[in-house]
Design a protein that fits this description.
single chain; Rossmann fold
């Protein structure tokens, strides 16, 4: 029996790291239906968003596709927008992707401040820090910087299934 019917989270996954997975894992354990929105889906090739949407989606799939819960997990892209209600846009994106899905009843966040805009739209919030005592400074920016600087410690912060994909994406022809 699940605590919630339908949960969602918004992540950029530049790249997908163990902190993102901690958030998704909690959602999958507590929700019957789970939606992962990959933010800035229209962005790639920039300093902040070097990886394209489909590469980021593949990183999540690489980790989850062999898990029993994978059939309850939807991964969809969401573009950055301005001059619209962000909470309405997010929820419309979820329902448009799967019109038969249950109404969203919980948002999963790394920090409760991420929930502020959704308070009147989504009845529950679950906070799951992306950091731990072992990795107190974990962030996508940090992992991305380590990859760019070829600091091999980044390998401990991503899933082994994604190391080759990340190396090809960041190092291209240099990768062998």
């Amino acid at each position: 029996m699940f605590k919630y019917k339908h949960g969602f989270c918004i992540v950029r996954c530049q790249p997908f790291h163990i902190g993102h997975n901690r958030l998704i894992k909690k959602m999958v354990e507590e929700c019957e239906q789970c939606t992962v929105l990959i933010g800035s889906a229209q962005e790639s090739g920039t300093e902040k968003n070097p990886l394209p949407y489909f590469t980021r989606k593949k990183m999540i799939q690489n980790v989850w596709r062999k898990q029993e819960a994978y059939n309850r997990l939807r991964i969809i892209g969401i573009k950055d927008v301005i001059n619209v209600s962000w909470p309405n846009y997010v929820l419309e994106t979820i329902y448009k992707d799967n019109p038969s899905s249950s109404k969203v009843d919980v948002m999963y966040v790394g920090n409760k401040m991420e929930y502020q805009l959704f308070e009147n739209k989504v009845p529950n919030v679950e906070e799951c820090s992306r950091t731990t005592q072992d990795y107190p400074f974990l962030s996508g920016n940090m992992v991305r910087d380590m990859i760019i600087l070829k600091d091999d410690r980044w390998r401990d912060l991503v899933h082994q299934e994604n190391i080759e994909l990340i190396e090809k994406s960041f190092y291209g022809d240099e990768f062998n």
